[in-house]
Amino acid sequence: MTSTTDTIRLLHVDDEPDFAETAAALLERENDRFRVETASNADEALERLEAAAFDCIVSDYDMPGRDGIEFLEAVREDYPELPLVLFTGKGSEEVASEAISAGVTDYLQKDGGTDQYTLLANRVQNAVSARESATEARRRHHRLEQILKTVPSCVVQLDRDGQFVFANQHAIDVLGLSQSEVSDRTYNDPEWEIRDLDGDRIPDAELPFRQVLETGVSLYDARHTIHWPDGTEKVLSVNGAPLFDDDGAVERVVFTLTDITGQRERKRDLQETKRRLQLALEATETGVWEWDRETDEVTWSETLERLMGLDPGEFEGTLDAFLDRMHPEDRPAVREQIAQAIETGGIYNAEFRMFDANGDVQWVSVRGQPVERDGREVMVGVHHTITERKERERELEVIERRLEAILENTTTPMFMKDDEGRYIFVNHGYREMAGLTDEEIVGRTDYELYPEATADTVWANDRAVLQTGQPLEVEEPVVVDGESRQYLSTKVPIYDTGERSDPDDPVAVFGVASNITDIRNQERELQRERDRLAEFASVVSHDLRSPLSVAQGRLKLARETGEESHLEEIETALDRMERIIEDVLLLARQGRDIQETAPVSLRDAVADAWAMVSQDTPDGTLVFADTADQDVTIVADRPRLLQLLENLLRNSVEHGSTGSQQKPGDAADRGGVTVTVGATEDGFYVADDGPGVPKAEREALFEAGYSTADDGSGFGLAIVDRIATAHGWSVTVADSAEGGARFEFTGVGFE
Question: Is the model's pLDDT at 40 over the cut of 50?
Fold first, then answer.
């Protein structure tokens, strides 16, 4: 609907150009929303309408060529909803009558004053507002139909003449129609032979459509069969409800249909027995009563007494005795209805609660009418038990409230956006997801709510639905408060109709989103575990093969020669295999998440790790840089940190003293490597004065199984990398100041 700030484009048609221009200026002064354009005759005006869209036309009557009425008729052929106000100096009852018959929106005679333009501006504003309201009502109605098309139930709608005006796809399938045939059918089409469950034809007056149309009362679970000429038969359960117009008359009837043919076929014998029993019960479920107004005596039939749990002839009472069996809350309304029926001679029709002989509440429907019998005034009527129907109605009300509550309060986010990406509706689940209120979401786009990258992805998917008219299921990232989440979104197009819209083009997108963040995280973690296992298998199979071959070869030689020197080589190979296995197991453990972190003295941790390393490799010197000597405290899992430092220090000692790239005067010549540990701005480093690591080998240095030493397992630095990653740190290798290797850790937390 046009807002109060939108422009109203007005076309003023008058054969007097000066008058038209003056009127345009005065109208624009009366309402600053008006933008008035003029035309000097009907033909020119029709050309203007074809070239541009207008919200209203103001036309003179007496013009050369086509007069105002002929112009109106031409407009109505192509623009039936466009408001047209006849503003003419030639006025008469005949002209007014002719204009109204032709469908003019309003009629106003010119006079000599300027006040007429205030009145004309009001008439134009009212005409445009009325058209916008009607357009919006049609849009809402059509949007409802679009939603009904997607529900899993069979839904049909008929007008007062019984003509089908709407049927969703499920209903079309059940009724055996094509979409093009729907509007050609009526509820009692000869192609459908409607029978009751006994196979007898149902009279037109008793068909569900007629019952709802004539009574204006909803109908529940009416069952009948439909027979086609080819012998096909379906059994339907029908629920119907009336739709009223502004005057309270039934305008249309909506039905939901359930195909229960299969159920009936599977339980035919049982259903037949139940049907006969139901017919027998129905024949005795109507009680008759009579109230003699002169004697105040109320008489119940035996059937009615039985229904109320009384023995035949047990109820002998007055109207007050009858009312005493009624629920206290219902008595005042029933008394008033009885009094009104007596006063008007009309029908008394009521539903209320009564207590049976056991004190249980029974809902009853009572219908009566005052009559004269043998000179006495009596009221006679019938009584039906409707307890089951009331229970069904209450159940339906509960279900409806629950459905409304589910839609609003479900944790699954649901939303609707227009064709420009603005949110029209969001439910509680979506508000919870976004952490925003309705007021903060509705009317805005994703670009106003989320980061640009997220909005770009979501808008691209929305456009795909709008452009193709096809549903779409896609994963979308959503960033809320800096946290990235992954959602599986199902989006469907919503259509609209209107004078200026194409009914084949979607105008909105309705979506449901499911949070799959945890699932995707689990999948990624599982893939990492698979990759890690594959890595272990590859490394173990490769690195164990060499020492195993050595051991097998030496064993064969020992057996053939009997020389014990081969046993020493076998022992060396077995030791290497044992170390590889231990390192693989350690690497597997270090690949898991760290446990508790706590403040750890970097100096103490390095000293403890060096003590372990120096037991096995005593050739080496540990030096603390000035920054580390200040006892820097970092946040870490201390046992894992010690393992990292031990592997790093051992690597420096073993490779720094034996590297093939050493030069005279470096570590090997001095009798051992010097390892320096120091703190940096966001971490720490471990450096040595050994041969260093060539740039070409640095990228592969932390891969499991990679080693430059013949007897190395290749897992030491891989374990270092895994422990650092588990802490959230990054590790890199570069040249140290002395030309050796410098391992630097960044992203370390300080206490």
Answer: yes
